[in-house]
Amino acid sequence: MRSSAEPLRDAGPTASQLSVDRVACTGHGVCAQLLEQVRLDEWGYPIVDDPHVANGAADGAIKLCPARALYRR
Question: Which sign does the torsion angle of CA 54, 7, 33, 40 carry?
Answer without folding.
Answer: negative
